[in-house]
Structure formats: C-alpha cells, structure tokens
C-alpha cells in the first residue's frame, strides 16, 4: 500500500505515533444502521434547508457563497470556509452530510470537508468508504490527534449523521484551566467518548492551546470537494436544575 501519511512529523504526546502517521492502525470498519434525526423543540436551527441566513464567509464576513438546493447546502469550491453568526459554546450539535456520489480522488483528496467547532477544532469530514488515509485524518477524526474509534462511514452520496457533544476549553488569563472535550457519534456509532483535545487543529504539527472566548462561530470547511450538509442544529448544554 502506498505511504498514506507522513514520517517527518512530531510524535503526538501520549501516543507512539507521529502526527498523520500512515503506519497507525486503520480504524476498524463498522456498517451503521439506518437513521436520521430531526431537530428537537428546543434546538437552535442553523440550517433548515431553505437558505444561508446566519452564515457568512470566513474570509470577508460577506454572505456565505455556498449553494443551497433541494434542502441541502453544498460547498462551492474556492469560495472558502463559511461560519455561523451564532456563537456556540458547550453544546450538543447535530448535522448531516454527504460526500459526492461521483467518487474522485483518494486519501485526503476524496470528499474532504470539516466541522470546525469554535472555528478551530476540526472533526474531519471525508469519504472513507474503501478509501484508506492516515488514520488521524479518517472521517470523524479529531484531525491530527485521534483517529475515530471505528470507521463508521457510509457509502459515497449517502446522508450521514454527526452528533457531537462539545465542551469548550476553559482559560484563566493565558493559562489553560480545562482542555476541550468531545464526544462524537457518527451514524449513531460512538467514535470518540469524552476525549480531551490537545489544542486547535493543526496540519503536520502538534497542537497547543491559546486562550479564546467561551463561545465562537461554527465553521464548515471548503476543501475543494462537493460535500453537502443539511439539518444543522444545536442545543446549548446547561447544568442540572437549570430548567
Ligand atoms: Mg477536512
């Protein structure tokens, strides 16, 4: 098999593997059952299939230039990443996505996009159906840090669900008090369970935290592939006894 990753990158703390290490074990393939989820009554709907109100271009803050069609949102290559005007902190996030039915490219070049929590922590979007890549870049990976526990990817063109429970990092001045933590279900299958992040997403480098606000936009990545999204909503996480 061709070299899938990099061998000139640093070793990830707590791991014996390097960043994007192609020799890291491939996540086991699991075939998901059939399911999708509509928004519950208290959700904040970020995309309901009808338009891009509430989404702007990351580069210039202008209205988002991705395509809306038949209830979904599709990347328009070279228009850049988009983000919400809503600011998300600790939350339960749901979204659905589909990689192109027409398969093109391989490894990181096939159906690549990304869900950037707080604009900086990426949960990978990629067509990983019979498409090996470096494991920490697999669909659902905490990119560059943790592969998904399993590869729960559906076939190209099929709708897939992400359910993400996000706990923002906490800072006191410049100091990190509590790292970000995430639980992710892909197609209803747990692929990360209360996993602490090492910092914001990097390419070919180790992550390290820098202080930021408690709530920030949700960003979706334009990686040049025609990835679709729909049914995007979140619920802010609150503590017990808060109604
Ligand atoms: Mg990506």
CATH architecture: Sandwich
Number of domains: 1
Bound molecules: magnesium ion
User: Rounded to an integer, what's the Rg over CA atoms?
Assistant: 17 Å
Number of strands: 17
General form: globular
- Fraction of residues in helix: under 10%
Can you write the helix and strand succession as a string?
Answer: EEEEEEEEEEEEEEEEE
Structural class: mainly beta
Question: What is the highest CATH level, the class?
Answer: Mainly Beta
What would you note in describing this structure?
By secondary structure, the chain is mainly beta. It has one domain: Jelly Rolls, CATH 2.60.120. Helix content is 0%, strand content 32%. The protein is built from no helices and 17 strands. It has strands at 28-29, 44-47, 55-57, 67-69, 72-74, 82-84, 91-98, 113-117, 121-125, 150-151, 160-167, 170-172, 175-178, 181-186, 189-196, 219-220, 228-236. Strand 12 (170-172) and strand 13 form a beta hairpin. It is globular and about 45 Å long. The termini are far apart. Residues 112-114, 124-125, 221, 223 line the site of magnesium ion (MG). Magnesium ion (MG) binds next to strand 8 and strand 9.
Keyword list:
mainly beta; eight-stranded antiparallel sheet; 243 residues; binds magnesium ion; Jelly Rolls
Quick synopsis:
The protein is mostly beta strands.
Task: Tell me the layout of helices and strands.
Blueprint: E1 28-29, E2 44-47, E3 55-57, E4 67-69, E5 72-74, E6 82-84, E7 91-98, E8 113-117, E9 121-125, E10 150-151, E11 160-167, E12 170-172, E13 175-178, E14 181-186, E15 189-196, E16 219-220, E17 228-236
Parallel strand pairs: 1-10
Antiparallel strand pairs: 2-17, 3-6, 4-5, 5-17, 6-16, 7-11, 7-17, 8-9, 8-16, 11-14, 12-13, 14-15
The structure holds magnesium ion (MG).
């Amino acid at each position: 098999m061709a070299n899938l990753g990099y061998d000139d990158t640093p070793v990830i703390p707590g791991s014996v593997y390097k960043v994007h290490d192609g020799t890291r074990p491939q996540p086991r393939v699991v075939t998901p059952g059939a399911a999708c989820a509509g928004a519950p009554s208290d959700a904040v709907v970020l995309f309901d299939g009808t338009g891009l109100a509430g989404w702007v271009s990351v580069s210039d803050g202008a209205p988002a230039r991705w395509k809306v069609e038949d209830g979904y949102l599709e990347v328009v290559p070279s228009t850049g990443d988009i983000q919400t005007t809503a600011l998300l902190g600790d939350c339960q996030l749901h979204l659905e996505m589909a990689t192109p039915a027409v398969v093109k490219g391989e490894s990181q070049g096939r159906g690549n996009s990304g869900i950037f929590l707080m604009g900086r922590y990426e949960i990978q979007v990629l067509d990983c159906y019979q498409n090996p890549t470096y494991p920490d870049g697999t669909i659902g990976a905490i990119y560059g840090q943790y592969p998904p526990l399993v590869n729960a990817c559906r076939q190209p063109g099929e709708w897939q669900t992400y359910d993400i429970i996000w706990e923002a990092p906490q800072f006191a001045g410049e100091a990190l008090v509590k790292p970000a933590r995430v639980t992710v279900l892909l197609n209803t299958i747990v692929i990360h369970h209360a996993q602490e992040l090492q910092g914001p997403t990097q390419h070919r480098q180790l992550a390290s935290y820098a202080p930021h606000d408690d709530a920030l936009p949700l960003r979706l990545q334009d990686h040049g592939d025609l990835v679709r999204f729909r049914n995007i909503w979140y619920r802010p996480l609150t503590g017990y006894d808060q109604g």
